[in-house]
Amino acid sequence: MKNTIYPWWIPLISASILFILIRISNDVPNEDHYLNHSPLFISIELIGIVFFSYIFLFLNRKLANKVIKQKLSVVFEYLIVLLLPVLLTVTVMWLSHNAENKSLSVSDIIAPGIIVMLMNVWIYSWLKNAVLERHYTDICILNERIRNENLSTKIKLLQAQYRPHFIFNILNTIYFSINEKDETARGAVEHLSNLLRRQLYTCEGTVPLSNEISVVESYIELCRLRFGNSISIFTRFENKHCTISIYPYILMPLVENAFKYVSGKKIVNIDMRLSEESSLIFCVKNSISDSYIEKVSSGGMGLKNLRQQLLIYYGETGFRLETIKTDQNFTAVLEVYNVG
């Protein structure tokens, strides 16, 4: 928050007014004059009032912000506004009177205390109003920025709506253009279409396990085409058609990681099962060579991002994700508890 709403000269003006009012309230009833006091007496009161006026301004600003943000009780708020300046004023008057070896009586404090309280209430009310206006302005600016960002997002979504349909139309054209006898090419297009459709149209929340396994299987088939006979892939998906649901794309990163780092004998083993405790256990193991051991040991950004995603979805106690590395294999095990 900018300090322009708290001009530096405000404490000087309020201090001058306070000094005059305090002297008048004390000197007039006693038929005295402020010039009759020693220079030390006047200096202590004047400098002290100026100094504490800046303190009041600082504390009032902090209190106003705290009250607005944390909604403190009105009683506590104005108890500070009324009592704190009185205590500081009494301190200044005690120092000035002590400089002239004068005693400070209760009657000397009553009038200045009331004046200081009224002055501080006025200053605090002005500051609080300024803080409220600034907060309101900031909120309006933030809301306007959010509206503009939402509008920009909607425009981009509207502009991009035709693209998925265009892609699927092209894929369908390619699919039907391929000779019916070429099952490999047709299968590749079909699996690619399945992956893209799932990525584009996945909704928020959980999805059936069977849908997630279908995407994983499509990805595996595309990897078979990519690697050809140079790789051995073993899969087992128990109860993949069961009715349980999971969050989307929590299995795919493990599969992608396996095919990314597979080396050596080039073996990928993917196993999924449901335990008796209604937990989903998904295990992916891939062979590695010496040149890949250091790369795989860090786990990769994919696994780190997956862990963060799982923490959001299931919390710290809702899953187990661990990796096991040997000289020849890298294994990632994900167990999601109580999915049944």
Q: Supply Rg.
A: 38 Å
Report the sheet-strand fraction.
5-15%
Largest sheet: 5 strands, mixed
The oligomeric state of the chains shown is single chain
- Along the chain, the helix and strand elements come as HHHHHHEHEEHEEHHEE
Short description:
By secondary structure, the chain is of the alpha+beta class. The chain has helices spanning 10-27, 39-70, 74-99, 106-160, 162-177, 183-201, 209-227, 252-261, 290-297, 300-314, and strands spanning 207-208, 232-237, 245-246, 267-274, 280-287, 319-325, 329-336.
Task: Describe it.
This protein has 340 residues and is of the alpha+beta class. The chain has ten helices and seven strands. The strands form two sheets. A five-stranded mixed sheet has the order 2-4-5-7-6, covered by helices on one side. A two-stranded antiparallel ribbon has the order 1-3. The mean pLDDT is 79.
